[in-house]
Write a structure and sequence with these properties.
about 110 residues; alpha/beta; Transcription Regulator spoIIAA; globular
């Protein structure tokens, strides 16, 4: 999994690419947690180029949501491809994590 990070004030915009599975989830989680520790209490996860999310990936998202919440911040996901959106819906994560159509909408959710 490849990650590109752009920081805007206290928001870290993380553009992920690849598969969020057992192989990529640990690095994804570690890098995102590090951003929170560095002061980014809001995480915007752009999943436009994430083609697959496994149960390990869902677990990482849940851990990140708890980490951000304990730091007094928020997390939102945006630009999910249909297959990933389906995983979020079927697993019920669409009721746990804010999902947005694009970055602008996600940034509004994080205000």
């Amino acid at each position: 999994m490849e990650l590109t990070v752009d920081k805007q004030n206290h928001t870290a915009i993380v553009a992920a690419r690849g598969r969020l599975d057992a192989a990529g989830a640990p690095e994804f989680e570690t890098r995102c947690k590090a951003l929170v520790l560095e002061g980014a209490n809001r995480l915007l996860l752009d999943f436009a180029q994430v083609e697959y999310v496994s149960s390990a990936g869902l677990r990482s998202l849940l851990v990140l949501a708890k980490t951000v919440k304990s730091a007094g911040g928020a997390l939102a996901l945006c630009s999910l491809v249909p297959a990933v959106r389906d995983v979020m819906t079927i697993s019920g994560f669409d009721n746990i994590l804010p999902l947005a159509a694009n970055r602008a909408a996600a940034l509004e959710l994080l205000k």
